[in-house]
Structure formats: C-alpha cells, structure tokens
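Entry for the shared binder. Reason: the reviewer on the internal report wants the predicted structure included alongside the sequence.
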Amino acid sequence: MAMELLAEISEADFGARQDRLVEYSIRKAARAVLFDQDHRVALLALQKPGLHKVPGGILRPGETAEHGLKREVMESTGFAIKIGEPLGAVIEYRDAYRKMQISYCYIAHTMGKSKGSHFTKEDVDQGAKLVWMPLDEAIHTISREKPPIPEGKYIVRRELILLKRAKEMKYR
C-alpha cells in the first residue's frame, strides 16, 4: 500500500535514549479525519485517560485499509463514510509494547445519518464519547492534552500530525 510517510514516532521524540535494538511485532491501523455536513471533525473523547482520538482502529488480518476504516468508523460513529484523499501514513515504534504500529490515514466525509455508535468494551471502560468540533478547535484541544497513560504521548503526537495535515490539504 503506497502512501506518503508523514512521520515516524519513537521514544527518542520524547527525550528517551534508544541504545538497544528492539524486535517489533507489526500492527496495522486505519484512521480518518472525518468531516460531517457542517464541516466539523469527529473525535472520540476518552474520559479516563483524558485524550481525544480521530476515528479508526486496528485492521483485521487480510483487511484493506479502506475496508477496515469503513468498519471502524461505523463502529465508533455509526456513520457510513466516503473516503477521500489519503493524508499519509504514520509509524509508531512503541518500545514498551514491542509494537510497530503503521496507521494509514485518510480524509473522509459522513454519508447519511448515524446508526449510533457501537463502542468496544475498551472504549466503554475509558468513558468514550463521540464529539464534533471545528478542525482548528480539534487541533487546539489535542495540543493541550497530557494523558497519563504511556501510549498517550504517541496518540497525541499522531493525531496532531493528522489534523494539521488535513488543515494543510484543506487550504491548498
């Protein structure tokens, strides 16, 4: 799947030294900066770790990024979507979990009415709630977050890269 690489995020980005080699298992995901008919962006607000994420999630074995994105967005927002331009890919090297996560990211637009969110157990446990806001507000909201969970710093960095890229593309 050829897609522009937007960023590689590792512990070094957060001030940690990386003096050892780590063998990673690979995990692939698909994510969307999702716009509604009012040009607002969807974010999944997770109350317990105190952070926001764009819709998306882990791909199933053999699943394409586009198919997985449609499935994940339907689960978290209840909306069917039209996938637009690719934003690019973000690779995260999560040493603590020995995982390399590749996120394939797109701009997408809602179609029709929501059939209601069907959050995963993990999302429910984290107090997930779907919120909509203007793109600039989404960037501002996430830029202030400092979640206490280890993977939170990766999520915040990744989401800011995606939202800022969507903003750049919108005004080209």
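Summary line for the report: The chain has one domain: 5-170.
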